[in-house]
Amino acid sequence: MIVDIVTRHPHQALAAEKVGAHPVSEAGLDYDVSFDAVCSQQSFDACVRATRPCGTLLEFGMFWSPVTLNNTLMMKEITVIPSIFYGHNHEHHDFEEAIDILARQPHLIDAVVTHRFALIDAAEAFRVAADRRSGAIKVHVSLS
């Protein structure tokens, strides 16, 4: 399986490479499955363009403003699967699953946890997490 990823920032491309994805400057065409984790009109439209007819688009997250569904989505008969996470199906708890995945595949931690802070520095940790220029993907605050 080949996994292409379009990233906005160079540090995201480096993290993608660490986990075996292939960073590309622009998505190709005719992917069986596309994942949108940005949840903007631009990212949604890019996934629709990149997904093959009768393919699947997984929408991870929440749009904070209305999104226009264009005719391409209908003409290609793409199946859209929404997911907002946080265990709304009450069968799975997302954070528990994420911890389980990281326990089984610890190499993923180094790819996604880009910054670590002590609890006393939590304010700085939140500042770094909110600053897109910081290179942060996931910021860890240690309780010890």
TrEMBL record:
Keyword Manganese attached: no
Keywords linked to the UniProt accession: Metal-binding, Oxidoreductase, Zinc
- InterPro entries, per this entry? ADH-like_C, NAD(P)-bd_dom_sf
- List, alphabetically, the Pfam families matched: ADH_zinc_N
Needed co-factor(s): Zn(2+)
Gene3D superfamilies given in the database record: Medium-chain alcohol dehydrogenases, catalytic domain, NAD(P)-binding Rossmann-like Domain
Residue ranges occupied by any Alcohol dehydrogenase-like C-terminal domain in the UniProt entry: 28-103
Give the molecular function GO annotations. metal ion binding; oxidoreductase activity
**Record SUPFAM superfamilies:** NAD(P)-binding Rossmann-fold domains
Q: To which protein family does this belong?
A: Belongs to the zinc-containing alcohol dehydrogenase family.
Protein name, entry field: Unannotated protein
Q: Which organism is it from?
A: freshwater metagenome
Traced from the root, the source organism's taxonomic lineage reads: unclassified sequences, metagenomes, ecological metagenomes
